């Protein structure tokens, strides 16, 4: 196994950490071998255009703006006569135009901070059932994502299931439907579950952040921190036997582990759910597998490990 790269002086672990960072930053492909400075390129083009104008004797010509003589652009047609515009009466008072009404949310935006996190903890702790928790989230105004999202994407599947899967945040399809993992990544997740004999009636699915961030961007650390008490309480109330983190974001948010998904996946760990230990495992997010299909073989190993753990637990009970 290659453990170092002498040409660059970086170890394999450094390379792996860099790849994890780029993946987390949203980089999903290599475009050029060298970085292109677009600002310098634009400045060079502007300088060349200025030199070209000076070579014509200075100043600007209509051709600089694609506005040559009308006769040269439309053969046989003369330029239209100038318009006779009325003179401006300086004594006329111009009335301001009425602005279009702005649709305002009934809940004002808030500045995320420790008070918002404290309010989230108190609201989550007050929920005695999953239905109570959903109502608390619907009434919670401490996260600004609720202002731009169409739906509160709470959960899907069987709340009494032995397996609970947790992703990062809903996307566009999930926001429109109010159901987690319903788009392309959700369809892949359904096929992965079916391959080990599970479906949505035998699992419970949720996200760390229940509102879609604008443009499907990554939730900010503040947004994740505000929403974390709710998903932690959701896990406690669902009380599954096994927990599956779909992607590094949900695993890091709920366990505090700072490793990348390549180092974290496939290893069983204990998750503390209000004093009860739940066996947990991290694997690749289905959306990542759609972009990197070669990693599906590793995700398959993780799901086989889940299947084996379910079988072993059933044998122990039997």
Automatic annotation (TrEMBL):
Keyword line: 4Fe-4S, DNA damage, DNA repair, Hydrolase, Iron, Iron-sulfur, Metal-binding
Keyword Signal: no
Any single Pfam family the record assigns to this protein: UDG
Annotated InterPro entries: UDG_Type-4/5, Ura-DNA_glyco_family4, Uracil-DNA_glycosylase-like, Uracil-DNA_glycosylase-like_sf
Enzymatic reactions: Hydrolyzes single-stranded DNA or mismatched double-stranded DNA and polynucleotides, releasing free uracil
Biological processes annotated in GO: DNA repair
Keyword DNA damage: yes
Enzyme class: hydrolase
Protein's name according to its UniProt entry: Type-4 uracil-DNA glycosylase
High-level lineage: Bacteria, Pseudomonadati, Pseudomonadota, Alphaproteobacteria, Hyphomicrobiales
